[in-house]
Design brief:
Layout: H1 22-26, H2 28-41, H3 43-80, E1 95-99, H4 104-107, H5 111-121, E2 126-130, H6 131-140, H7 145-151
Antiparallel strand pairs: 1-2
Helix pairs in contact: 3-5
Length: 153
C-alpha cells in the first residue's frame, strides 16, 4: 500500500487507491504495483470481497443493462421508423430489426453492440420488420436453412 503519504484515501476492504485522488494521479505506477502485491498476498480475501461486491451490485447492474438495452432499441426503432417496412404494422412490441441483405446471425453476438453499430452507421443496411414479415422474408430468401429443409417433403 502506498503508505508514505498521510493524506491517502483508500478502500480499507480492497486496498485500492481512489483514481481521483491527487496522490494517485502523481504516483499511479507505484499505487498499481502496491495493489497488485496486496492482491497476490491476499488472494482469498480479495476473491471473497469481489464475490460479495458482485452479489451486492448484481440487481443494480442488471437494471442498468436493461435500461441501456431499452434505450438503444428505442433509438434504433426511431432511426429506422417505428413501423414494419413491408406491411406498415406499428406495434413496437413485435417490431424487429432486420439486416436488409441477411447474415444477421454472424453479427448478433450482443444486442447492445448491434444497436450501437446500427446507430453509428445511421441505419444503413437495416430495416424494421414485424415478426411475421421477418420470418416470411427469412423463408423466402432461404436465410434459415433448417426451416426450409423441414418444410420440404
Amino acid at each position: 500500500m502506498c503508505s508514505d503519504d498521510r493524506n491517502l484515501t483508500c478502500d480499507n476492504e480492497y486496498r485500492v487507491m481512489s483514481p481521483v485522488s491527487s496522490y494517485y494521479q502523481t504516483h499511479r505506477e507505484k499505487c498499481l504495483a502496491s495493489a497488485k502485491r496486496y492482491q497476490r498476498k491476499n488472494r482469498k480475501k480479495v476473491q471473497l470481497y469481489m464475490k460479495g461486491y458482485y452479489q451486492r451490485t448484481r440487481a443494480k447492474q442488471s437494471k442498468k443493462t436493461r435500461e441501456l438495452f431499452a434505450s438503444l432499441r428505442d433509438q434504433c426503432l426511431e432511426l429506422l421508423g417505428k413501423r414494419c417496412a413491408r406491411c406498415g404494422f406499428d406495434d413496437i412490441r413485435v417490431l424487429q430489426i432486420d439486416h436488409v441483405n441477411g447474415g444477421g446471425h454472424a453479427e448478433r453476438k450482443s444486442a447492445i453492440s448491434m444497436y450501437k453499430k446500427i446507430l453509428a452507421l445511421g441505419g444503413i443496411g437495416y430495416q424494421t420488420l414485424c415478426a411475421n414479415c421477418n420470418w416470411i422474408k427469412r423463408i423466402e430468401n432461404k436465410e434459415h436453412r433448417r426451416i426450409i429443409e423441414e418444410a420440404t417433403p
